[in-house]
Amino acid sequence: MRDHTRFLPIAVVLSMALTLITAGAVLGAETTLTATLAGGAAEDPPGDPDGAGTATITIDPDTLEVCWELSTSNIADATASHIHTGAAGANGGVAVALDVDGFSGSSTGCTTGPDAATLQAIIDSPAGYYVNVHNADFGPGAIRGQLGALAPNTAMSGGSNPVGPLSLVGLFLLLVGLSASLRAVRTRG
User: What are the beta bridge partners of residue 56?
Assistant: First the structure.
C-alpha cells in the first residue's frame, strides 16, 4: 500500500495559500455606502430647511478611487460636496472632496481618495463620516447625511464571487490531505 502522508504538508500549505489569496481579494473589494441628506437641524449651523437629497458612495481602497452619485432637491445650486469626518450632530474636517466644481440637482463622478488608510477607516466605520453639500446660501452646508452600509457584507457584493475557483482548489487540496492523514492513522493503528 502506498504512503500518501508525504503529500499532506504540501496539500495543507497549498490550501492555506489559496485561501489567503482569495481572502485578500474579498477584503480589498469595493464597498458601497449611502446617505439620506437633509437640511435644517441636520446641519450645524442649520442648513436649508427644506433641502433634501441622497448620496451613493463607492470606495475601492485598492485603487484609492471614490465614486459618487449625488441628488439634491429644494436647495440652490451646490458649490461643492465632500465626505467629512464626524458622527451625527458633530462637525468635522473634509476627508474626501467629491464634486468641487458645483452642480445643479445631481452630480456623478470619481476622484482619487487621500490614502488607503483613510478610505478603509470610512469603510470600517461609515457612521463616523457624513456627506455634506454646500452652496452660496449655506456655506457650511445646505444638506448633510451620515454614511451607512448599503447592505450587510457590502465588501463582498462588488460583483465578485467570494467562493471562486481558487477557493475550491484549496478546499479540494485540504480534503485530499486530510483523507491521506486519516488513511495513514488507520493503517498504523
Answer: 34, 69
